[in-house]
Amino acid sequence: MFNYLLKIEYNGSNFVGWQSQKNGKSIQNEIEKVLKKILKSKIKLIGAGRTDKGVHALGQHAGFKYEKRIDNKEKFLKSINFFLSKNIMISKKRARCAPPAPAEGLYLIDVKY
Fold first, then answer.
1. In this structure, are residues 29 and 45 in contact, taking their beta carbons and an 8 Å threshold?
2. How far apart are CA 28 and CA 113, in angstroms?
3. What is the pLDDT of residue 1?
4. How many angstroms separate the CA atoms of 113 and 103, rounded?
5. 20-52 pLDDT, tens per residue?
6. CA–CA separation, 67 vs 1, rounded Å?
7. Which residue(s) pair with 4 in the sheet?
8. Residue ranges for the chain with pLDDT beneath 70
9. What is the pLDDT of residue 54?
10. Which of 10, 48, 87, 95 is a plausible cystine mate for 61, CB 3.0–4.6 Å?
C-alpha cells in the first residue's frame, strides 16, 4: 500500500466546504469521485485541515492510500484536473513523487502554483 499526498487549490464559492457532507457538494467528495474514476478503486481522502462553505484555499493538503505505485505523475495529474470542476486544481507545475520507499513511505504529489 502506498501513501500519496496532494496539495490542492480551490475556489470554494460553490461548495459546502472541504469535508464530505450530505447537504451539498464538497471539495473532498469531488476529488474522491475523480480518483475513483481514474484509479478504478474507492479512495478516501484524509484532509490536513478543512474549510467552511464558500472559503477558498491555496494550499489544502490531503492524503490517500492506494495499492499501486503511480509511476506517471504527469499523466495522473493531467487526468485528475481534466475531470475536476474548474474551481478545483491539482497543479501539474513542480509536481513530484518521492523516491521509492516501503509501503509505509509517503509519496508526494506537490501542487504548487
1. no
2. 20
3. 78
4. 29
5. 989 999 999 999 999 999 999 999 999 888 889
6. 4
7. 64, 107
8. 92-113
9. 87
10. 48
Amino acid at 62: A
- The residues annotated as belonging to the active site are 52
Where do we find the cell 509505509? Answer: 104
End-to-end CA distance of the chain: 29
Q: Could you give the CA distance from residue 55 to residue 68 in angstroms, rounded to a whole number?
A: 33
Is residue 28 a contact partner of residue 47, using CB atoms and an 8 Å limit?
A: yes
HEC letters along 44-104 = CCEECCCCCCCCCEEEEEEEEEECCCCCCHHHHHHHHHHHCCCCEECCCCCCCCCCCCCCC
DSSP string, 6-53: EEEEE-GGGSS-SS--TTS--HHHHHHHHHHHHHSS----EESS---T
What's the CA angle centered on 83, arms 85 and 90, to 5 degrees?
Answer: 70
pLDDT at 11: 94
Distance from C-alpha of 79 to C-alpha of 73, rounded to nearest angstrom: 10
